[in-house]
Amino acid sequence: RSPIVVRDFALQIGRKPFQLISELMEMSIFASMNSSIEEDVAQRLAKIHGFALEVRHRGEGGAAGEAEKVVEEKKPAREMVPRPPVVCILGHVDHGKTTLLDTIRKANVVSSEAGGITQHIGAYQVTHKDKLITFIDTPGHAAFSNMRARGARTTDIAVLVVAADDGFMPQTDEALGHARVSKVPVVVAINKMDAPGANVDKVLRQMQERDLAPEDWGGETLYAKVSALKGEGIEDILEAIVLQADVTETIVADPKGEVEGVIVEAQKELGRGSTASAIIQQGTLKPGMALVCGENYCRVRQLINDKGEQIKEAGPSSPVKIVGWSGPPDAGDFFKVVKNEREAKKHAEANELDRKKLEATQLQERGSTSVDDLF
Ligand code: GTP
Ligand code: MG
């Protein structure tokens, strides 16, 4: 078989080699431009970039077993339908991110379930005018940049919280930078409208200066004036999110496709073992399915939603707690479904071995020991 070389492969799919190298690093594969990669790895890379890898084995004439790799544009195999937007809340310290998340959640719980108690699973869903919105409520910046480093879009819309009495601050701009690099559209929540010294015009001007011209100033940025503390303007910010989602073409998924998702947080729980909260990105997850996530695997024992209820399935953009993991997977890691638990275990073990090999190689590069010594 002819090897698949990173440089050639990048050329074939029209990407820069360094981009593939960093994606490989995310898979714990340490490659250079001239490294050859395994077929299944190439398959995964191709998939990320919307290609399908086709391996043609030359029969008669060619050397036995020689293969020619052909990459073709993937046919629209998936039937994409709109899904709820996945939203994260970013902003400067103390500008009211946590208060806003709590207020949105409470407002929704009270109206729909008459005092029901929500479970903390790292993300939750609310309804606005019959449309669902998924909020990620784990540490904004960390989760966001970690996920971004993995080259994936886990967030569809960023709500940038700006306190009206303070205006844009260094971390506001930093958050805006993150959103821009990830090409995630931004909706601005001008918070603390009730505070003395609240100055909306100043914030709008600052938005203008940052190429976030507000809609009513002829720009395209949706915003809402809110007081997270007093629960004012909450409907307005939800409306802005829904409007933004409507004009964002990428907020689609195939509920019938292969299941994929991303871990939001994971923990060990008394009586439940390792559990992980996740957001489903493609397909529909059901109990009994087998998952792999890095070095951990799972036969889904239970699915629990943000209201603490056991559910029978979780579709695209659903936040869900998954019970049944071999160990807690890492936040920001992606998982996929495999045939059965045995396969899942095998994949997880292979991933563990890959990591150990990588660590050994790194050690060796530092000249401390050889790979053979370690195995
Ligand atoms: P960090 O997580 O520390 O970055 O802060 P945060 O952005 O999550 O802010 P948090 O929600 O903790 O709010 C910070 C302070 O601002 C708290 O004392 C809140 O009560 C207050 N606060 C939040 N929203 C409002 C608001 O709408 N009006 C007023 N007056 N105070 C608010
Ligand atoms: Mg907070």
From TrEMBL:
<protein>
    <recommendedName>
        <fullName>Translation initiation factor IF-2</fullName>
    </recommendedName>
</protein>
<feature type="binding site">
    <location>
        <begin position="91"/>
        <end position="98"/>
    </location>
    <ligand>
        <name>GTP</name>
    </ligand>
</feature>
<comment type="function">
    <text>One of the essential components for the initiation of protein synthesis. Protects formylmethionyl-tRNA from spontaneous hydrolysis and promotes its binding to the 30S ribosomal subunits. Also involved in the hydrolysis of GTP during the formation of the 70S ribosomal complex.</text>
</comment>
<feature type="binding site">
    <location>
        <begin position="137"/>
        <end position="141"/>
    </location>
    <ligand>
        <name>GTP</name>
    </ligand>
</feature>
<feature type="binding site">
    <location>
        <begin position="191"/>
        <end position="194"/>
    </location>
    <ligand>
        <name>GTP</name>
    </ligand>
</feature>
<feature type="domain" description="Tr-type G">
    <location>
        <begin position="82"/>
        <end position="256"/>
    </location>
</feature>
<feature type="region of interest" description="G-domain">
    <location>
        <begin position="85"/>
        <end position="233"/>
    </location>
</feature>
<comment type="similarity">
    <text>Belongs to the TRAFAC class translation factor GTPase superfamily. Classic translation factor GTPase family. IF-2 subfamily.</text>
</comment>
